[in-house]
Amino acid sequence: MASLNKVMVIGNLGTDPEMRFTPSGNQVTSFRLATTRTYTTSEGERKQETEWFTVVTWGKLAETCNQFLTKGRRAYVEGRLRTRSWEGQDGQKRFTSEIVANRVIFLDRPGAAPLPEEAEEPVEAAEEIQPEELPF
Question: What angle do CA 45, 50, 56 make, to 5 degrees?
C-alpha cells in the first residue's frame, strides 16, 4: 500500500533564516514560519490561533532561502513532516517535528518587505518615486 507524507503551509517568517553547514559541507537553512487561523466562536467572538513550524531546507534551496527571506516575509512551503528525537542534557528524551521543504515560494512582492541590503537605505528615498514611474 502506498503512503503519503506531504505538508503545505503559507505563513510569515518569525525569524531570519539561519544557515549552517554539515561536516561534509552540505548547506542547511532553517527558519520558523507562523500560520494564523481566524474563526468565530459560537458566541460570536472572533479569535485567532497561530501555529509555528520549523522549516528545514537543504542545498541550493537552503542558499536561496538564506539569501532572500527575512523575518516578516510571507512564504509558501511544501515538503514532508519529519519528527526527530534526542536526549537532552537533563537525560530526558526530547522530540521535535519539522517540515523538510523541497519547495519554497516567496510570496511578498519585492517592495512589500525590504531585502537586507535595502533595509539600510533611508526611508525618505522611497518618497522620491513619482507615480508615473510605477510599473503597474
Answer: 165
From the number of C-beta atoms within 10 Å of its C-beta (0-12, 13-18, 19+), residue 26 rates as exposed
The pLDDT tens digits along the chain (136 residues) read 889 999 999 999 999 999 999 999 999 999 999 999 999 999 999 999 999 999 999 999 999 999 999 999 999 999 999 998 888 889 899 999 999 999 999 998 765 555 444 444 433 333 444 455 544 4
User: Which residues, listed in sequence order, are joined to residue 19 by a DSSP beta bridge?
Assistant: 29
What topology does CATH give the domain 7-38+47-118? OB fold (Dihydrolipoamide Acetyltransferase, E2P) (2.40.50)
Nearest to 30 by CA among 117, 116, 96: 96
* CA–CA dist 69, 29 (Å, integer): 11
Question: What backbone torsions phi and psi does residue 68 show, to the nearest 5 degrees?
Answer: -110, -20
Give the pTM.
Answer: 0.73
Eight-class DSSP state of 124:
G
